[in-house]
Amino acid sequence: MAKPRKSGSNQPEVLNRKARHDYHIEETLEVGIRLHGTEVKSVRAGRISLGEAYVRAESEPLSLTLHSAHIGEYAPAGPNQHPAVRERALLAHKREIAKLARLSQVKGVTIVPLKLYFKNGFAKLLIGVGRGKGKSDKRQDLKEREARRDIERAMSKRV
After folding, report:
1. 145 pLDDT more than 80
2. H/E run at residue 23
3. Is the entire prediction scored with pTM above 0.85?
4. 14-132 adopts what CATH topology?
């Protein structure tokens, strides 16, 4: 008999806030990630950083890899540790990888990891096709965010 699901899951959800600040995200895709045993335990403990990470899609041979993601060591593993920064294979359908490879060939377009989370016991990575923002775009976003906060403050005082 299957165990009943817990309503409040304590699984970590790691966000890459820097990606949404630096890129206009045009399209997103959920992919699987191939991890070693100690890496899975480390991710569950929340010892991961996606800030500097990026994704590379290649058409020959057809592959999708995550680069520069830092997953900290899992202390109870002792001397059998994984390297903290290494290339990690991402799992997706062939047509999705081919599409991402075509999109990433355009100048100014990159594939960035947005979020890492667990779904049905498997580690999933949300990746996005992003086009770089300029300084003026970033300033405009900050102004819009501040205006939204001011409106929310005014509405909360009114109620």
Report:
1. yes
2. strand 23-33
3. no
4. Small Protein B; Chain: A; (2.40.280)
